[in-house]
Amino acid sequence: MARHSDSDLYGTSFSAESIKVIAESIGIGCLPDDAAKELADDISFRVKHIIQDAAKFMQHAKRTKLMNIDIDNALKLKNLEPQYGFHSNEQLPFRFASGGGRELHFIEEKEVDLNDLIQNVNTKVPLEVTLRSHWLCIDGIQPTIPENPPPVTKEAQKLESVDPIKINKPSKESAGKPTTGKQKLRNVETVQIKQLATHELSVEQQLYYKEITEACVGSDEGRRAEALQSLASDPGLHEMLPRMCTFIIEGVRVNVVQNNLALLIYLMRMVKALLDNQSLYLEKYLHELIPSVTTCIVSKQLCMRPELDNHWALRDFASRLMAQICKNFNTSTNNIQTRVTRMFSNAISQGDKLALSSLYGALEGLSELGAEVIKTFILHRTRSIGARIEQHLEGSLISNLDKIAAGHIKSLLVKVLAPVIKNLRNPPDHLEEYKAEYGYLGPALHNAVMKARFQPVTTTTNSSNVMNNTITCAGTNIARTVTATSGIVQQQVTSVSTPGRTIVMNQTGRVTTPTGNQKIVFLTQRPQTPSNIQQQNQQNNTNQQNTVVKFVSNATTVNTQKLVTTQQKLSTGTMLSPGISQTNQQSISLVSKQSFLQQQKIKVEAMDIEEDVSTHFVLKDQ
Amino acid sequence: MENPEKSQLLAVLQVLKKYNLKGTEELLKKEANLGDGIDNNSLQQESDVNSVLTGYKSDGDPEAYEECYIELKRFVEGSLDIYKHELGTILYPVLVHMYLELVYNGHTEKAIALMQRFGPEQDIYYQDDLRKLALVTKRDHMNGNELTDTFKSNQFIIRMSRDTLSLLKRHLHDKKASVMVNIIQEHLYFDMYEGVARNKAQIDATSGAIIGEATRQDNKAKVLYGLPKAPDIQSLAAPVEDEEESNEQDTPDKPKKKKAKKDPFFSKKTKSDPNAPPPDRIPFPDLKDNDKIEKVKALREASRRVNLSPDVLPSICCYTLLNANHTVTCAEITEDSSILAVGFIDSIIKVWSLVPQKLKTMKNAEQLQDINIEAEDVLVRMMDERSGESCRSLFGHSGPICAISFSPDRTLLLTSSEDTTIRLWSLQIWTCVVVYKGHMFPVWDIKFSPLGYYFASASNDRTARLWATDHYQPLRVFAGHFSDVDVIQFHPNSNYVATGSSDRRVSLWDLTTGNYHLEVQTVEY
């Protein structure tokens, strides 16, 4: 026990003031000073004594934390009445009744509402104590299982990769060697030819590697989830990390050429899992991983049918990975963030030579890096990019592929720029100014900024005036896009059909967050972009002669027709991403239950959208 | 008989005399083997008794205490190096008693000032007590306070060499500081010994307890620390071996090998240890055949154990209780690591099986009647195969479980609780079999003797007790600690129990006589 200072011997005691306050609270108006002092001294003594005894109970329960039950027991030891206060707030509820010459005491039982029980409003019962066993050590060797600490700590890995000279001999010896015989060999070889020192994986590790890699790229989603979980949590992967990285890199290399979107997604999920593993330090492998991730962001083509497949989700996901890498590993020596930013920025500045899909990737990659990056590298290019996508969106020579890409870029830019512009500019937002400054994207940005400015207000007030504003805002947005493409017209249809609901939603005080279940939100926020495009794709594919006007003008007649198309959509939608959509059946049904129950046709459509959104989230979450 | 004990006894006799309780007095005298000869003696002691009862009344000038202490300190520091450390041991008790005297006489500020100035410079093993002492700042705080009562009614024992003591006496004689002389005369007991004064390390090794060091007398008694040879096992060893030989006749090499291995093991055992107590010193019930087989198995197991070395590293299995959030108070694993028992703060005991064999319960009475008692596997047949569970709960206590102990044959479980009771549970019918009531306060620790049957408990009521499973009252009460008895442990030969207490002493008690052999140690936690 440490030596105690003078103050420790006496500690603190109650002040006379607090005693007076307590006295007042129980109705003793003017307690004399000396009485308060006397009481304070005595109470301090008694309380300290009780705590001293309570500490005994704490020690005998092998705890270091004093709990109220210890105080209770200490009071019991002194034959004092324990404090019932923190057990239950009422005594045994005995009630008295008399009548018919009899007197009765009974315990009043409260009526229990079965509905409450059924709806599970009650708090959860604490989990039962269970016993778990694992090997801490087998013949003196610690097995690398999640329960045990990792054989090489993250700090050691970090030190090794950042500053290898600093590592002294013993700690280097501890770094990744399975047997003692090999260790000797390494020592003989010394540091200069370090690259020759090979890690030999044990049989178990080889087996593990085989299982994990097979599961990660296999077709069984359940196994894949398990494998990714293992990658994200197991502490003993340090030695296998080089092989895992090689697997990913080679996988990306091959599958980009073959345009195998699904496999690329699986590989990126592996990267994500490795990044999430708390016991791994990936810095040494970044030079290999970053190019692969970048490929998945900016590659011109990532899938067999660019107009059908949702390769945008992969680009988004990989961009987020890149942002995570930058956040975790950026140091003043490696400047990862700077280099990555420069890479994307250079790509954008190539101008028209750059494919639209790559442009999207570069923009997405930059925008994930934060508001500052957006402000510096994207904002001033808004005009030129806008001009470029205008050709594809509004021009006469429309290639379907480019149109989709341009649509994506547009919605991406609107989404990421709006918050930045909102902070940059002061409230009176004039459409003309926006048009002048941002060119083609001006109106859309203006709209989004207005909305962004407006959103906090809607959540706080319920005035119908404000509601009307929102609707008109949405209306203008739609009005602008009516002339654009069929895909976005659909967006309009749905949003027109739901303004009434917008109001209801706001009246109930819900905040319109991008991840909410309300359809209107999805339509104006990012996650819906791929789905919109997809709808558009399908529309273009299934019924080329799509009568857009009908959708808008006559809702009832469209009903049947639309139902048919959406059915088709639904089937194609599931076909596109079978593995993922299956796992999300639950969320889909849940979502569809919650929103848009009235109209069958919209419900089906909602499901379609939700499905895509949820696949999106699957990527994000895992 | 110990000196402080004697004075206590005499004080009791005096009180009895005072109230004219002749009968009780005679009885007590007879039981304590005190002849009439001590009557005169007791008169002599009368002043002593008075001083014990009156405590700290003193007319000393409160201003003088601090100076006195400084002077004593200066004397200690200025003395020769060989005496310095031994003389230093009186500083702590002097400080404590000065403080108590000041508090008793109402000079609280002076007392606090003295404590704040000199408290922190005391040895580290006294700091805990000083902090508890610092709580006492009023005369009525001393009323019924465990710590001050201990200081008041016991002399602080200091061991000193003859030279050091005479040096101290000379100093006190010269100074004539009445405060100091009073304290030293009334509250300090010098246990003088011949020889050179001890150094700091030697003193630190034995000091630290509330009432000072152990006197020489205390640790003089002979302790039979050896392990007695076990005749029952030896006699049984032969038949068991025969049995094995007959079993393994088809592999003729094996039994020979085993025999060769086993023989030296038992022959070594047969050499009787000169320090071992006679095997019948503590009576034990006769072992049942089953127990003997069990014991032989355990011995064989023990002989197979491999010593750990750099080449032979251990395997460790770690058991973790999940979702326990601060509710677990104690846990115990059987010797063969097959069963784990865990005590909870909400008075539940849970028992887990750590091996594939499930925890089975015994069949009910009707079914038991059908079993052939002569059958060899009668013990197995007794158990209900269908009732196997990997975890069972035992309910009965009404307070946090403090300690758990398995009987050596793993059929009984003892638990002690804050509710002052000890319960014996059967691990075959999974109910409470006996409730032992006797302790008045929480029972902190409980241990089965290595041979079963007896068990010992340690309690907050400052006593340790010895029980036998078939007696509902304690066989021995070991009183003598000045604070909670926190832990208890049997000697492997079951003839002694050792207790550790919050007064920071470790005592060894003889089960047959109930006498105690004291060893004082500094305990820092």
TrEMBL record, chain A:
The keyword Phosphoprotein does not apply. It is found in: Nucleus. GO terms for biological process: RNA polymerase II preinitiation complex assembly. Residues 12-78 form the TATA box binding protein associated factor (TAF) histone-like fold domain. Belongs to the TAF6 family. One of its GO terms (cellular component) is SAGA complex. This is Transcription initiation factor TFIID subunit 6. Gene3D superfamilies: Histone, subunit A, TAF6, C-terminal HEAT repeat domain. It comes from Popillia japonica (Japanese beetle). Keywords: Nucleus, Transcription, Transcription regulation. CDD domains: HFD_TAF6, TAF6C. The keyword Transcription regulation applies. GO terms for molecular function: protein heterodimerization activity; RNA polymerase II general transcription initiation factor activity; transcription coactivator activity.
TrEMBL record, chain B:
It comes from the Eukaryota. Residues 240-250 have a biased composition (Acidic residues). The keyword Transmembrane does not apply. It is found in: Nucleus. The keyword RNA-binding does not apply. Residues 60-188 form the TFIID subunit TAF5 NTD2 domain. InterPro entries: TFIID_NTD2 (IPR007582), TFIID_NTD2_sf (IPR037264), WD40/YVTN_repeat-like_dom_sf (IPR015943), WD40_PAC1 (IPR020472), WD40_repeat_CS (IPR019775), WD40_repeat_dom_sf (IPR036322), WD40_rpt (IPR001680). Residues 262-272 have a biased composition (Basic and acidic residues). GO terms for cellular component: transcription factor TFIID complex. It holds the Pfam family TFIID_NTD2. Keywords: Nucleus, Repeat, Transcription, Transcription regulation, WD repeat. PANTHER family: CANNONBALL-RELATED (PTHR19879:SF1), TRANSCRIPTION INITIATION FACTOR TFIID (PTHR19879). Belongs to the WD repeat TAF5 family. This is WD domain, G-beta repeat. It comes from Popillia japonica (Japanese beetle). The lineage of its organism: Eukaryota, Metazoa, Ecdysozoa, Arthropoda, Hexapoda.
